[in-house]
Description:
10 helices
Amino acid sequence: MVTSHVVTENIGLQYVSSIWLMAYSALFSIVNPLGASLIFAQATMGRARPEVVSLARLVAFYSFVVLMVSIWFGGEILTFFGITINALRVTGGLVVATRAWSMLQEPEESEARKERQALQGGRTVATPDLRDKAFFPFAMPFTVGPGSISVAIALSSERPAVDPRPAYFMGLTLAVICISVTVGIVYAYAERIVALLGVTGARIVSRLAALILLCIGIQILFSGIEGFVNDVAQQWRTYHA
Length: 241
């Protein structure tokens, strides 16, 4: 009995770890904190170190809240409007894959767009307290925009209908916590990271992250297509039974 319990616990931990790895990779790819740190460092240039750290923590917290709401309630909100899980998977997969392809082809354009969102025409830097801008535009849409929310909802739609559903959401929650902590640390040390990576290094990381995200988007897309095919097959068998 003890051996069986230990084996079951190990399988559960392995499952949670695999879900965490998949979700963290997807969120890291779309959030791209290393690439975003280039813009964050520019937006906070000349600010005191304590103010930058405080802002980074606030942005990480708000990002955590947005992603958690998307994961736990995004799917239910869409279902309320009559959108099926398979439709959500197909749409989310298309959005993620399209976004990843754009990032893979033109990371410089993506950086320029994020820079405009963060700086807001230069008005953000000029404000007396940058913490007033922690939620908008730094957390949303600069850090977790529509693409990140789509990834979070798409990941939640992949949950199994039965056990190990709790373990699945535990893995997703851990991934959100880890990506939020990553954002907080990377943003807090953005100036040093920029100096270490440089523009070229950050763009290389961006392209690698975009490639991973493209693969995840395709996987989610085909998961939705497979669900539609299974539903049609089930209806056909029921009709001809």
